[in-house]
Amino acid sequence: MTLANAISISRIVLAIPLVLLFEDISKGELGKLWWAFGLIIIIILTDFLDGYVARKAEETTNFGKLIDPVADKVCMMVVMIYLIISYKLPFLLFFVTLAIRDVFLIIIGVYLMFSQEEVFQSNRSGKWFMGITALMMTFFLFQDSLGISGYVLWTTYLISMLLFAFSTFEYIR
User: Fold this and answer.
1) What is the rounded distance in angstroms from the CA atom of residue 69 to the CA atom of residue 65?
2) CATH class in words for 3-172
3) For the chain, which residues make up each domain, given as ranges?
4) Which end of the chain is more exposed for a tag (fewer CB within 10 A), N or C?
5) Residue 95: closest CA among 156, 26, 157, 48
6) Which residues cross the membrane (predicted)?
């Protein structure tokens, strides 16, 4: 296993304490919101770090091309589920559509990996989608404590939806 792949896997492992923090936050322990924020920052940094390490060490692998977006999706789904359950993100349809698309892309990636074909890498619009969606979810998480306006929340949501549609189109093209 390469160092970059281990970093990607660590992102999946970090989703576990994130779930536990969100559970405590939903029980009213709002002080843990900042711990969750810190953990989200670490998760985001590992997302940049794994790709950087893989390219620098020239250890880009098909497994890495598959596990990196899976780790992204696991962490993103944890945050989305919390936001939906806590009624901060009322768009279950967005979550379901995203989940269906991502499961489809993961199945194709696993098939390509085991059929000895090149696994497709994430595209630029997909990376923008992930970044804007992470920003949007952070805004929804901290809207009260940071005083983020509804305009900012819904603008990032709309941009995220547009990038979702565009990146999905690019993947199936």
Assistant:
1) 7
2) mainly alpha
3) 3-172
4) C
5) 157
6) 33-54, 66-85, 91-114, 126-142, 148-169
